[in-house]
DNA sequence: GCGGATTCGATAATTTTTTATCGATAAAAT
DNA sequence: ATTTTATCGATAAAAAATTATCGAATCCGC
């Protein structure tokens, strides 16, 4: 098959760092640099050079060269391929309030392989409008339309109270992965992937680090 | 001092899970339940019971009781105290475009101990307006005002290209922690905390999990 | 071409995080 | 009162992730 390596042995931690490498490499590419060393990446991104080498070798097709490092363009292509940035996955967005609208307007998703094909909202005033070029449909058509569009990814950007219901409808429509921006734990079957965008958790980590820094100073 | 335990020996992973426990516990409290067991929490949140016990014992003042579990109200108070949810930290928001507006309108932050006291934007059309009850000031007053307000936390919600400049200004004004929503790596001194809200990374992890699930099915 | 500097990949050591095991304890049931 | 049962905390084991070490490779300046 040729690419047995692909899905195997790439840790979640590594996957989480790949987008940062990707951005970094694109900067280097734009700056006209042909190669880059793990040492340099590690220094700039505040990581360990061995870790960078390991991460990259897990997904790179070509090995790095002694004294030169890795070929920037090749690495970008490798990450593109590995993360699926080069072929779009369809998704639906549920909830076009403040956050939902922001997400709909974020054109960057296309670069990450995500294509939002429809939006939904329970508020009749929002139904029929267009946000970020995406049409808004009534919430009660969710499951039916998702099924018809054959969409596998759902983005949940509704208020806390509504999130579980939305998740249920998405799953009823055949969605297999849910990106959850609502601050609740969603209850879903085993075979559904959920990724919580937990702002509270991020904030907790940030403020603990802040506390540490302030503490270490006096 | 009495609380030597506080900042010690609580791993970042644990801190990241605390907000989820907090939400869960509040649901239980609202449902009128007085105690809850690590087993139940683990089951509902899809975690390991030993891990839950360890996490909780790292921050709880009272031990859990055999056969009953932990006191819900006490635990909530403990997490509140530990994460600083009970005393507000001031922050400024930079950038009130789509995402910034959404963040400004998110009232939930107050519950997480975050109080946004001012917003900034480079667009003159936005300056002077109010978003989510927060006044928008011109970007060139950033450093000065941050210093005067004595704010330690900055939220960056500007386009990629502007983010580094904003970070520099925030730091010049005395900010010590930056919550970065722009898809770039920020270059900051050692003694500044940065937490990237990396949507691309989340999405990468979600879609890899989706791929695994789909793969394991056929 | 030759020698030095730099980086790589592989392997090993360390650290951190997660999970398993088990005796002790206290509530609930008999 | 005694037994049963669910749960805890402590300790140990396992797994995962990070970091260190080192010989080999190859580019670059001379």
**Low-pLDDT ranges of chain A:** 1-6
- Compute the number of strand runs of chain A: 9
Main sheet properties of chain A? 7 strands, mixed
Overall geometry of chain A: globular
Based on helices, strands and strand pairing, what is the structural class of chain A? Answer: alpha/beta
Oligomer: homodimer
Any chance you could write out the topology, listing elements then pairs?
The structure is a homodimer of 218-residue chains.
Chain A: H1 12-30, E1 35-36, H2 38-45, H3 49-59, E2 70-71, H4 72-83, E3 89-94, H5 98-105, E4 114-121, E5 130-131, E6 134-138, H6 142-149, E7 153-156, H7 160-172, E8 177-180, E9 193-196, H8 199-217
Parallel strand pairs in A: 3-4, 3-7, 4-6, 7-8, 8-9
Antiparallel strand pairs in A: 1-2, 5-6
Chain A binds a DNA duplex (30 and 30 nucleotides) through residues 11, 13-14, 37-39, 48-51, 53-54, 57, 63-70.
